[in-house]
Each structure stands twice: as C-alpha cells, then as structure tokens.
Amino acid sequence: MKCVFLITVAIGLVCHVSASVWPHPHLAAQEREVSRYLNGIENAILAHRNTASEANWAYDSNITDDNLDAKNEVATENAAFFKQISEHLSRYDYENFRNQDLKRRVKKLVGLGYSALPEKKFTEMLDAINNMKENYAKIKVCEYRDRTRCELALEPELTEILANSRDPEELKYYWQQWYDAAGAPTREDFQKYVDLNSEAAKLNNYDSGAESWLSAYEDDTFEEQADAVMEEMRPFYEQLHGYVRYKLRKYYGERVVSEKGPIPMHLLGNMWAQGWGNIADITSPFGDRQLLDVTDEMVRQGYNPIQMFEMGDEFFQSLNMTKLPPTFWEKSILEKPDDGRDLICHASAWDFSKQGDVRIKQCTRVTMEQFFTVHHELGHIQYYLQYENLPSMYRGGANPGFHEAVGDVLSLSVSTPKHLEKIGLLKDFVLDEESKLNQFYRSALTKLSFLPFAYTLDKYRWGIFRGDIKPEEYNCKFWEMRSKYSGVEPPVVRSEEDLDAPAKYHVSADVEYLRYFVSYIIQFQFHRAACEKAGEYVKGDPEKTLNDCDIYQSTEAGNAIKAMLQVGASKPWPDAMEVLTGVRRMSADAMIEYFQPLYDWLVAENERLGVPVGWEASDNWSTAG
Questions:
Q1: Which of 266, 376, 506, 527 is labelled catalytic?
Q2: Concatenated DSSP letters for 190-245?
Q3: Is 377 a catalytic residue?
Q4: Catalytic residue flag (residue 16)
Q5: Sign (positive/negative) of CA torsion 424, 429, 435, 437?
Q6: Which pLDDT tens digit goes with each residue over 34-60?
C-alpha cells in the first residue's frame, strides 16, 4: 500500500483494565467527577500527543541515534502518563455509566496498548520495532550489472526497476537482494516484538494481539465479515489472476510462467505483488490502446511535487472542504531531501494534535500514480482537519479503514478520463468500448489484486499472535498463505533460513494492515453515495455509471463526506458510515458493481481462450534450513 496512517500516541486500543472500583454510592456522582477530570486533563493529553508526534517526525525524517534516543525517551514518558490516566479512570464503574458519550470517552483512555507493559519491557518493545524500521530504511542494494555499485534504495530506485524492467533475471536479482536484506536480519527483533505483543495483549485482557487489533473495529464478528468479503470477491480475483498469468506466459514464455501454477511475483511490477498496475502495458486486453497514463504529459507541462499537492488541495476546496493551513506548506516534506540523510520515504500523513498543524512526508515523484497518492494522503489530512475540534480521544477514524478510504474516494474521481481532461492533463482521448475495458482492467490491477494481499498480511500475523503459526514455520506459512489467497510465489526457493514478511514496511513498523483491506471495500460504498449526491450516478442509467463518476466541484457530495468525517471516532463506525451511505455494514456490492463490465468480459474471454482459472500449489518454499 502506498501510504500509512501514523498514530504517534501512546494510547492503545479499547479495553477494560481490571482494577478495584471506588465504592461510590451514586453513578451520577461518579459521572460528574469523571467529566471534570477529563476536562481537566484534555490540554495535557494534546500536549503529550504533540510531543510524541514531533519526536517521531524528527526521527522518521532524519534517522540518527540522537533522534532515536529522543523519540524513545518521549514514548517512555508518555507511556507512564497515559498509564496514570488509565489507572485513575479504571477505579470508576464506567461500564454502567448512563452517559454513553462519557462512557465511550473513558473506554478510549483505559486501553493502554503496549504502554501496559512494565517500563523495561516497553523500552524493549520500542527498540525491537525501531530496529526493524531502521533496517528497512537503510537498505542499499548493489546494481545488477555492476555489483561494485551498491547505492540503490527502495525509493525510488528499486521501486522504479520493479515497475519498469521486463528482464526476468534482473527482476529476480533485485527481488532477492531486497528480501534477503529486509527480512532475516530482523529475526531476533521480530521474535522479541511478537513475544511482547502477546504479553501486552494479555495485560489488556485480550486473548492475543489479534483480538487486540480487531477490537478497533468494535464488532466481535468483524473477522468473519472480512472472511465473507474475501470469499465474495474470490471468483472475480481468480478470473483476473488467470488472465494476467495467461498474458505474462505469452510475454515471458512457458519456462518463466507456468500454465496453472502461481504467478512468479517479481513479474507483477511491485516488490510485494500487492498491486499490478505497472504491468498494464504488457497485459492489457487491447494492448496500449488509449491506455490512460498522463505521466509524460505531467512531465511535459513541467509539473513538480508542490504543484501536485496544490491541485489536490484545490480538489478538496472545490467540495467545500478545508483549505490546507500555511503550516502544512512550511513543515511538510514533499520531496526527498538531497542532503544525504537517511529517512523513511514511505508516504505518510501526520496530525500534531495542535490547531492547524498537519503535515505529509512523501518523497514525491512526478508520475500519475504519485498524483493519485497525493490525493490519498491529503484525504488523511482532511480527516484530521474535520475532527480537530473533537475531544482528544475522538480524534481518529471511525475505524482504521475509514482513514485509508477517504483519500481513495477522491482518487476514484481524479483517475477518471473526464477529470484528467478537466484539469488539462488529457487531450484527444477517445473512450470507446475497448478503451473503457482497458481502463477498468488497469484499475482492477490496482484495486482487485490488492485485496488478497492485504487480507493475508494480517491473517498471517494473527496466526503468529495466536500461537497457531510457530517460530519454526514463520516463512513457510507466510508463502503458503500468499499462494493460497493471492496465487503468487517467490521467484527463488525460500526456506526457514529466510524471514520474508518484514520485507513489507508495515510488518517491520508494527502497522495493522486490515485497515487497507477494509478501505478498499468501503471506499466504493463511499464513492457510490457521494456520486449519487453529486448527481453523477444513477443506478441502471448507462449515462451515469459508478465507474465514470467525478465528484469534483460538487459541494453536495463534499458536505456529505465532511459530515461523516466530523464524527471522527465519537461513534461506532456503522453510525459514521450511515451518515454518508445510509447503510451500516461493510459490503463488496459497490466494488463489484463498479467492475462488473470487466468481470463479464473476463469470464467470456477466459472461456474463449481456454485460460485455466485458479492455481495449483507451488513448491518454491520449504521447511528445510
């Protein structure tokens, strides 16, 4: 995934910490006391959050030992601060409070997350995560054709090579170099992290870290909902997978791509095979016929990163949303610094718990994909700005997936030919039936291919946290699950000597990933509702389809989205979803509707070509050392 929503706060997930309850005879008196207490500590909470954000920003934008020490010191101080608050509030009988809002505010603060650990172990946890993140950020790889030159970083060099090279041996080389460097060296830290994650979960009265993470969705059935959505999308994914494998086999030959097995993932245009959009040029149904890519036009017109963010800001303003504050432009990092410092380039949006202080850190490049990423990141920023006047414990997404979905809703409009024409990046583009299918296909390579990847990343970690996946089978089970759900395999044999999951940033950085799976589903529900309000979509009208909707300049759509964002985390997520969509449940029906023309075409075309659908098991990993 392109970005990560960072919460740099030492508050954990919602839970009830057991403690003796003060013997107050009247709940009403307790409620008055707690209300006064929360009002009294509000400014202190915001100040501690701000200090943590500043320390994390300093480290992530300049990885030095001094900045790491400062970041850890702040985290330890904050852990103690929030632990005091939790212990104080846990003495009240808040579960029986009649004031539901007050009860919700308390429950948001009594959950301690990793701060529940004793101070020494909390520090060990921070060290383990920071070590994995630092290893990830500092990796440099030698060039394929000149092994004496070893300065290639993930961003931008390896990312661009995986996207653009069509030499399978070169791609295999860089894939292996990255996974070898990003995975196995973290084994000790990864195991320490797993052990302490489990200990913290139990201190917070969860069975494991899996239940702790899932509690953010406030629904005991949410894991089953995700399973059901994945099964709902699986037939579509299998049709897309079969067609892509067929086209890659034609391009690379049968010695590189098998007819019925998993797809070798180094051929899919992305280091983790999480999105396949970069291979649209060699797999599209109708070649490069009007294949939408405005990168060259952006370069020709002299676009730069600042302009890309200005245009994203203007999009939000056209919806009657909030203009970016001056401090955003003063304090953000929108291009990779050229001063040689090590930094985490992974695109991220930041909230500093201070009026108007929101920032983005992104090593932005002038490409169409990055243009869409800009809008995604600004979606996080807009969410921050819309809920910044709520109490501190409500300043977050309704569930973790909401934050990720908001920016992508904008990207669904920005990526339409009609919008790119409006802003002058597309000229003389003829959208006939073949071109439309190419556009649906390219979008599916990004959106649909991502679902099993996102689903697997947390399904795998839940298995580890619950003890179902043992340390001696970490790597085997990882690739077994990647094959089962995504139908991909590593280009070289992997064994338990390797540890490949931390080669993805979110695993090394301890970032829950179900949020991205959820966001890719609910963004289409949000998109459909916004398009209806903009008058851009009418169900059954071939002139106003979900996949050709652009909500740009629609204040009606913008006001509806804004109303949902302003709820923040003050209500359970179904309440927030209902504000915009009128429904209260995650469903894949809007996504399926969006891509229905492509699905119908793929089924018919795969049948016509005799393309095998589904995949056989791979043998590219083993339990051997």
A1: 506
A2: HHHHHHHHHHHHHHTT-SSHHHHHHGGG--TTHHHHHHHHHHHHHHHHHHHHHHHH
A3: yes
A4: no
A5: positive
A6: 999 999 999 999 999 999 999 999 999
